[in-house]
Every structure is written in structure tokens, then in C-alpha cells.
């Protein structure tokens, strides 16, 4: 991964009370030399990798289970992707799908932090032939 | 440790792997290399001849070019990975849409490498999500 430039996408869980505006203002207030772009789902942050990781750590410290992040391949406002410049935005469907999932994940992280453990789901068994016969028989 | 995630563009898996102290191997990082270093018009849609040749290592010449193109990107990451997390039973629109054969090929390559791999199911509700996160956490914390 490039050390020179890293673009991170910060997405707010729909269960959170945080808004994209609050998040981007908070990142700006860290005073790091980074490009911060507010988006509908959170914000984009672009800077050298070290700076981005510092910002990520501070965001996690403040909102541990409400803000999720991943790397973005293209830089902020790249004309091939940015909607303002009629870019194609091919990854947006995936972001939308994950946004819906984040509410469950936020709840799960809270529960796991509180000590919840993995419980294997009940194994599905085949129904015995005699029971099946009883179900099928017409009374 | 380097952990390959499948779907390789998943935000949830990327975040969880990083959160629990490992390095996720994702499609984004692989594409970023191409965006930064190559003068290709729009990676990963446009590829170079080297990519096509690299794809041949993972999929034969008779395999459709789309699968080979995807594997040219993901194959080297699977080779590099120390572990993998695979999300099963995803809805159609989740992950890199459109090619079940590529997904099957990725699962096969992971199995052939013999690295520790965790299969998790896509969580539909809060309780399933708790199981999903707890299982992922246990797996990632157990990696040495």
C-alpha cells in the first residue's frame, strides 16, 4: 500500500446520532494536514498514511463503535469517480448495502465489548422417516 | 498478520480486521497501486498486458476474461495472505457484484493454500450480527 497518499472513507452507522457535518468538523478540528470532504455517509480524509492512521485512532477513541472506515483506491474528487464532475461512482451500491448492515454491526460491537461470546447456531438435523410419514399421512 | 477478506471490497470486514489488530488485504489497496503508479485510464476496468498474463497463473486460458481479470488482482493477495475471512450467503448486491464463478474460484484458491480461513454468514439481524462479530473477534485474536 502506498505510504505517500491514503484516502480513507469514514462511514457513520445509521444507529448513531452523529451527523456527517459533526464528524467532518471534528476531523478538521484535529488540526492535521489532511483534505477532509464531507459526504452523505460521513467523510473522506486524504493525507499521508501516518496522518490518516492518527486521525483514525482519534476518531475511534471518540466514537469506537459508531464510525467505520476503509481505504478508498481513488483520491478525493478524482474526475473518474467524483459525482460533482460526472464520475461513474461504481462502488456506491456496495456502500449503500453496507450502510444498512452497519446498524447491526454497531449493536454487535457494543454487545461484544460488554462480554457477549459466540454461540454456535443449532445444527439442522434431518427429520426421521417415521416422523415425516406422520406429517405426510392424511388423517 | 495479513488477512484476506472476501468480498474483497467489504467495509465491514476491512474495519473489523483492522480493529482487531491485523492488516486487511483488500481490493481497494490493490487498485490504489494501479491508480497511483500506472497510467491506465480507469483501473480496474482497464488492464495492462501484464495483468492478463498474471491472471493466467490463477485461471486457465479457457476461463472467461472477467474472471481472469479479477483473479489477476485478487490472486496475488491470496498468495500473500496469512489467513482469510469469507462471508457466505451474501445478498446478490453485496460485494463485487456479478460473478459467482470468480467467488467460487477465490474460495478454492484459499482452500488450496491451506491458510486458516473463517467462513461467516451474512448477518440478517442484531443477534446474528453479535455472533458474526464475536466469531470474527475470536478468530482474529487467535491468529499468532
Which keywords apply here?
heterodimer; A: 139 residues; Alpha-Beta Plaits; 4 strands; 17% strand; elongated; B: 144 residues; alpha/beta; four-stranded parallel sheet; 6 helices
What does this structure look like?
The complex is a heterodimer of chains A (139) and B (144). Chain A is an alpha+beta fold and 139 residues long. Chain A is built from 4 helices and 4 strands, in the order E-H-E-E-H-E-H-H. Helix content of chain A is 39%, strand content 17%. Chain A has helices at 20-29, 49-62, 92-113, 129-136, and strands spanning 6-12, 35-38, 42-47, 67-72. In chain A, 30% of the residues are buried. The longest helix of chain B is centred in the last third of the chain and has 17 residues, at 126-142. The N and C termini of chain B lie close together (8 Å). Chain B has one domain. Chain B is 51% helix and 13% strand. In chain B, strand 1 (2-6), helix 1 (11-19) and strand 2 (23-25) form a beta-alpha-beta unit. Chain B is built from 6 helices and 4 strands, in the order βαβαααβαβα. The model of chain B has no long low-confidence stretch (mean pLDDT 89). The chains are: A alpha+beta (139), B alpha/beta (144). Chains A and B meet through strand 1, strand 4 and helix 3 of A and helix 1, helix 2 and helix 6 of B.
Layout of helices and strands:
The complex is a heterodimer of chains A (139) and B (144).
Chain A: E1 6-12, H1 20-29, E2 35-38, E3 42-47, H2 49-62, E4 67-72, H3 92-113, H4 129-136
Chain B: E1 2-6, H1 11-19, E2 23-25, H2 27-37, H3 49-55, H4 65-80, E3 83-88, H5 100-113, E4 117-121, H6 126-142
Parallel strand pairs in B: 1-2, 1-3, 3-4
Summarize the structure.
With 139 residues, chain A is an alpha+beta fold.
Amino acid at each position: 500500500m502506498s505510504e505517500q497518499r491514503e484516502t480513507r472513507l469514514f462511514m457513520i452507522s445509521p444507529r448513531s446520532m452523529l451527523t456527517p457535518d459533526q464528524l467532518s468538523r471534528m476531523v478538521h478540528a484535529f488540526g492535521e494536514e489532511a483534505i477532509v470532504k464531507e459526504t452523505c455517509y460521513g467523510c473522506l480524509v486524504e493525507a499521508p498514511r501516518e496522518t490518516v492512521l492518527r486521525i483514525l485512532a482519534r476518531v475511534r477513541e471518540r466514537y469506537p463503535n459508531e464510525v467505520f472506515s476503509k481505504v478508498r483506491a481513488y483520491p478525493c474528487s478524482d474526475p473518474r469517480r467524483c459525482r460533482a464532475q460526472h464520475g461513474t461512482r461504481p462502488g456506491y451500491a456496495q456502500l449503500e448495502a453496507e450502510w444498512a448492515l452497519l446498524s447491526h454491526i454497531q449493536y454487535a460491537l457494543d454487545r461484544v465489548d460488554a462480554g457477549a461470546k459466540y454461540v454456535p447456531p443449532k445444527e439442522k438435523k434431518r427429520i426421521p422417516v417415521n416422523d415425516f410419514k406422520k406429517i405426510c399421512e392424511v388423517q | 498478520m495479513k488477512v484476506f477478506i472476501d468480498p474483497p471490497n467489504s467495509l465491514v470486514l476491512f474495519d473489523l480486521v483492522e480493529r482487531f489488530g491485523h492488516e486487511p488485504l483488500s481490493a481497494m489497496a490493490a487498485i490504489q497501486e494501479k491508480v497511483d503508479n500506472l497510467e491506465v485510464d480507469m483501473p480496474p476496468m482497464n488492464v495492462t498486458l501484464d495483468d492478463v498474463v498474471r491472471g493466467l497463473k490463477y485461471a486457465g486460458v479457457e476461463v472467461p476474461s472477467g474472471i481472469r481479470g479479477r483473479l489477476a488482482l485478487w490472486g496475488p493477495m491470496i498468495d500473500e495472505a496469512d489467513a482469510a475471512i469469507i462471508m457466505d450467503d451474501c445478498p446478490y448486491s453485496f460485494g463485487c457484484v456479478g460473478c459467482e464463478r470468480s467467488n467460487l474460484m477465490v474460495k478454492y484458491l484459499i482452500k488450496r493454500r491451506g491458510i486458516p480461513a473463517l467462513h461467516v454468514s451474512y448477518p440478517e439481524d442484531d443477534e446474528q450480527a453479535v455472533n458474526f462479530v464475536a466469531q470474527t473477534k475470536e478468530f482474529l485474536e487467535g491468529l499468532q
